[in-house]
Amino acid sequence: MKIAAIYTDWVEWFRRPRLSGCSYYRIAQPAAALKKAGVDIDLKGEIVQKNILGQREDFKKTYARLFGNYDIAFVQHVDSAKAIAQLFAARDYYKKKVILDIDDDVTSVHPSSPTYQRFYEGSPLINFTTRALEFADAISVSSDQLARVYSKYNKKVYVIPNRIDPGMFDYSVSDNDTSKIRIGWAGGIAHEVDLRSVINSLKIVMTRYPNTHFVYCGGDLASFKELPEERRTYIGYTKTYQKWPKMLARMKLDIAIAPLIESKFNRAKSYIKYLEYSIYGIPTVASGGRGLPYDEVIVNGQDGFLAKDYRDWDKYLSLLIENKSLRKQIGQTAKRKMSCYGIDSLVDSYKTMFSEVGNGCNSA
Q1: Which of 349, 151, 115, 148 is nearest to 267 (CA)?
Q2: Does residue 172 fall inside a structural domain?
Q3: DSSP β-bridge partners for residue 233
Q4: How many angstroms separate the CA atoms of 61 and 53, rounded?
């Protein structure tokens, strides 16, 4: 059985061939681990018409090249009518299989998110997304909550959680060579409402402890502008996820935060941010309770802290700021724990999914 793992964010409003965090964790990283384990899988980027001797392929040749050579296409979710028509028409013509992976609850995007302009109730992109899920031979998701959300569109749902590849994060964390304790956050532009929920706690804590400095990368969110300009540093963003681990290592963080508000969308998210911080031994304070994902992975007070309200944020940030040995203890405990959260631990789960879905494929 041959598998094509296609990592393009294959959506109408956000089409790009480079690796995003989602396409890395959900497609590219598993494909690399499976290849290493001997599975016949090839990683592909954007499905485009090749220029051959200066001539473009027609779509028939493009899809013959894909589906003629592979039994299963493992693809990021699609929300484009054109992509749906091409993908599933080719699937049916060549009698192969398509597995769609989806890592967010696009039916419950918070109104504060930039993506809400496109993923609102009844929007065309939601309708196209759910239609594609119905057409798929199976779907894969990262959490049980996502499985509950999407099982009404497709009964063949595989829950395969997000994991991390230590080799991708093979950078030495830069030492904090300043006199300040560096508190930080790393994430995307859709987290404004989440950061808004803790910004007052951050302001209070930073006022109480003048030896603190806030560092952030990824989304340059409005909430951060409320912190004193001379006590915050924005270090930019990456155009491809391949550069993300190096940027995170260079933030020189002493403490990391991972806030999430309670919402249906966030209850379906994964705890990947905690894994990213922990692989570098950075102690984390994350939002806990109310069905949020960090409850699944953090043991409060041992390998991180779970803050359920503003009092907890104040308490746990203060503890870590005041106690260097506690920062090291929590961070190192979390780092050791990452040995149980490596991508290699999921190889058998992916093999099972491909085997069950691919049973009966019409091989080329």
Answers
A1: 148
A2: no
A3: 215
A4: 15
Residue 281 and residue 150 in one domain = no
Chain center to CA of 255: 21
Considering the domain architecture, whether residues 63 and 195 belong to the same structural domain is answered as: no
Strands 3-6 and 41-44: parallel
Q: Is residue 353 part of a domain?
A: yes
Token pair listed for 3 = 């598998």
Angle (nearest 5°) at CA 194 between 302 and 169 = 55
User: Look-up: residue for tokens 């944020």?
Assistant: 313
Number of compact structural domains in the chain: 2
pLDDT tens, 77-134? 888 888 888 888 889 999 999 999 999 999 999 888 888 888 889 999 999 999 999 9
State whether 247 and 266 are in the same domain: yes
pLDDT tens-digit series, residues 173-224: 877 888 899 999 999 888 999 999 999 999 999 999 999 999 999 888 888 9
Is residue 272 within 8 Å of residue 244, measured between CB atoms? no
DSSP code string of 240-305: SGGGHHHHHHTT--SEEEE---S-HHHHT---HHHHHHHHTT--EEEE-STT-GGGGT--TTTSSE
Distance CA 143, CA 337 (A): 20
The Cα–Cα gap between 321 and 26 comes to 35
Eight-class DSSP state of 211: T
Number of Cβ atoms within 10 Å of the Cβ of 326: 14
**Do both 156 and 187 map to the same domain?**
no
Residues ≥6 apart with Cβ < 8 Å to 108: 149, 263, 264, 265, 268
Question: Residue 227 burial by CB count (10 A; 0-12/13-18/19+): exposed, middle or buried?
Answer: middle
Residue 284 maps to which CATH number?
3.40.50.2000
